């Protein structure tokens, strides 16, 4: 199984590996079938940009680092409900929120790496909630590297799931962090730390963020974790920047946007090249990433010309120099 852009889909060589959901979270197309060109046009009209497929080149790739689709969709639904409550100026429904937080922490804890389901693989009206779920998954993976305790993990997860809840209250983008904070701090069972994650997730270490332009130690570490994950997820989802390029941009924020320790934890926790990505090696050979082991930036690859598996953790002279841009064959 691998992830491809919708424009790369070949209905002769590929089958859908994971279902596609419509805006009501119903299965639009089930796994295990080919997509007729007319259906593909409809998906493109819906701005669904990515598909999970099975084909010959991805044989044996499992994407076990990725959360199962039903759990991801459950989390999206819970975030959506909380946003709708905030929009109506009602209190949060915390039982479901706390339950999904426990589930997400457990899911991340049992995986070596976290591979995101792209928000652009589902209907547009669900993407802002999927963004929050993806930010949470990234943040929990970084927090694992930083060895946060269980209580802080829960505060982090709740804060990340609700970091953009102010957008349900105001349409002013620069005011949504403060509006989210004011709303969350009224909830007795939401910690002030979680509320501050919503407040500070657009701040920068150098004082160039918003809404308060705080700097230095005022920018809480736990909010920095959310902030760096929010920035990365927006780059790969909204701006359509490839993960390896987004990672390079994150590196430039060390010391200016975020604490260097947090930037390093992010780099060490999040893979730039996920299984199923076709890459070019520095010896000129094309390969496909098959799995992540312990070093996020040095995966195991399968050379396409020979089917030889190589661990870049052990093959120190080999480097990934780029991503293969596939051309659709008609």
Essential attributes:
330 residues, alpha+beta, three-stranded antiparallel sheet, 11% strand, single chain, five-stranded antiparallel sheet
Walk me through what this model shows.
There is one protein chain. The chain has 330 residues and is an alpha+beta fold. Helices cover 39% and strands 11% of the residues. β3 and β4 form a beta hairpin. It is globular. The protein starts with a strand and ends in a 7-residue tail after the last strand. The model has no long low-confidence stretch (mean pLDDT 95).
Taking the sheet with the most strands, its summary is:
5 strands, antiparallel
Protein structure class: alpha+beta
Radius of gyration: 20 Å
N-to-C series of helices and strands = EEEEHEHHHHHHHHHEEEEE
The strand count comes to: 10
Distance between the termini: 21 Å
Fraction in helix: 25-40%
Q: How many helices in DSSP terms?
A: 10
Could you give the order of strands across the largest sheet? 9-8-7-6-10
Mean pLDDT: 95
- Beta-strand portion reads 5-15%
**Unreliable stretches covering 5 or more consecutive residues:** none
- Principal-axis shape equals globular
């Amino acid at each position: 199984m691998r992830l491809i852009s919708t424009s790369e889909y070949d209905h002769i060589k590929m089958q859908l590996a994971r279902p596609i959901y419509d805006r009501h979270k119903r299965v639009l197309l089930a796994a295990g079938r080919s997509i007729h060109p007319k259906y593909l046009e409809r998906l493109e009209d819906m701005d669904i940009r990515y598909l999970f497929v099975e084909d010959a080149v991805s044989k044996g790739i499992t994407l076990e680092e990725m959360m199962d689709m039903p759990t991801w969709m459950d989390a999206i639904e819970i975030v959506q409900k909380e946003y709708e409550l905030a929009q109506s100026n009602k209190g949060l429904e915390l039982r479901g929120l706390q339950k999904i937080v426990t589930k997400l922490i457990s899911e991340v804890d049992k995986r070596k790496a976290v591979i995101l389901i792209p928000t652009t693989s589902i209907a547009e009206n669900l993407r802002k909630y999927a963004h929050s779920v993806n930010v949470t998954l990234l943040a929990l993976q970084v927090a694992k590297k930083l060895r946060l305790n269980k209580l802080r993990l829960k505060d982090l997860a709740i804060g990340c799931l609700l970091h953009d809840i102010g957008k349900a209250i105001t349409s002013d983008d620069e005011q949504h962090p403060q509006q989210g904070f004011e709303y969350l701090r009224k909830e007795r069972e939401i910690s002030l730390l979680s509320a501050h994650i919503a407040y500070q997730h657009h701040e920068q270490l150098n004082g160039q963020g918003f809404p308060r332009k705080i700097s230095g130690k005022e920018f809480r570490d736990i909010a920095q974790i959310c902030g760096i994950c929010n920035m990365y997820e927006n780059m790969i989802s909204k701006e359509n920047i490839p993960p390896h390029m987004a990672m390079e941009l994150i590196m430039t924020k060390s010391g200016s946007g975020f604490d260097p320790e947090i930037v390093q934890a992010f780099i060490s926790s999040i893979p730039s090249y996920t299984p199923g990505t076709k890459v070019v090696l520095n010896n000129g050979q094309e390969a496909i990433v098959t799995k992540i082991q312990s070093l996020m930036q040095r995966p195991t690859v399968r050379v396409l010309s020979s089917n030889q598996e190589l661990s870049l953790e052990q093959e120190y002279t080999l480097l990934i120099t780029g991503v293969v841009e596939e051309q659709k064959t008609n």
